[in-house]
Design goal:
This protein has about 160 residues and is of the alpha/beta class. It is built from six helices and six strands.
Amino acid sequence: MIASDKGFAGEREDKSGEAIDKIVKAKGYIVEKKVIIPDEEDSIMKEMIHMVDDLKVDLILTTGGTGFSPRDVTPEATIKVCDRMANGISEAIRSYSLSITPRAMLSRAVSGIRKETLIINLPGSPKAVNESLDYIMDSVTHGLEILTGKTHDCAR
């Protein structure tokens, strides 16, 4: 899910969503839905709830809306729809990203769980999306196996 007023209005090409699509498909995931929505908390929440409750996807990756702009509300929407938080994922992304740029400290991204779906906010730039997903995907895959009951392993 891409949160972008300009992308939604057709004023900006979606490169971050394309980066997500390419990486997750290369890792063997099936992309059920890709959507660009405006930076509006209610719209973001409604789409996340639909993806979890109706489509029953295992993973939602968002891009955009995690900065300091008043319109950046993706973390707030994510927190409101989640039953539990998975803070370590976003902390790991920020920590790794800080080794690349000090501006990573400005990310307000969060990660959480709604039912059996993991939701992860990613940065808005394609470069940062690539770096973040390359860093976390193996661990995320393992976490999803545990969350969805597709493995008997448990994280220690």
